[in-house]
Amino acid sequence: MSIDVNNESGTEVDEQAILDIARYALARMRIHPLSELSVIVVDTAAMEQLHIQWMDLPGPTDVMSFPMDELRPPSKDEEEPPQGLLGDIVLCPEVAKKQGEDAETQHSMDEELQLLTVHGVLHLLGYDHEEPDEKAEMFGLQAAIVDGWRGEHGLTGPSPAPTVS
Predict the structure, then answer these.
(1) Tens-digit pLDDT profile for residues 117-154
(2) Using N-to-C axis directions, what is the helix angle for 109-124 and 132-152, rounded to 10°?
């Protein structure tokens, strides 16, 4: 799996954890090991610009996903998943920090960025949360991936509750 993490935000983040959880999520979703992903960490001004440009919504947001080859998790019948460019995930640590502080179960900015990374991966793979059934599926899968990764890394306690919009 080729995953690039590029921190352009000016904020110190745990880039290794972002890389590790992205790799874990893609493996868990059975994405081809030669697929490529880019994660970019930006400040609020850059995120706001992207949010306006691509979503026509004001203000910065926590995470945005820009799919490339529209890869999907393979069906149970497929022996080998297709490979390709997954796309880009853009994270904003300043928004993540505030969301972590405001969450019902307060957690760190890095924990929120880990959650947002998984959220972004799932969006790249075609998951969405517009409808209640879609939201239940996506957020359930998101929690299972974050909890599985945290368990493998010896991190105690439940994963942060979803705070993404």
Answers:
(1) 999 999 999 999 999 999 999 999 999 999 999 999 88
(2) 130
Strands 2-7 and 36-41: parallel
- Intervals of the chain under pLDDT 70: 74-82, 156-165
**DSSP letters spanning 48-77:** HHHHHHHH---S--SEEEEESS---PPPTT
pLDDT, averaged across the chain: 89
Q: Helices 44-55 and 93-102: crossing angle, nearest 10°?
A: 90
User: In the numeric block, which tokens belong to residue 123?
Assistant: 């969006």
What one-letter code names the amino acid at 8? E
List the structure tokens of 109: 């900015």
Provide the strand spans (E) within the chain.
2-7, 36-41, 63-67, 85-91
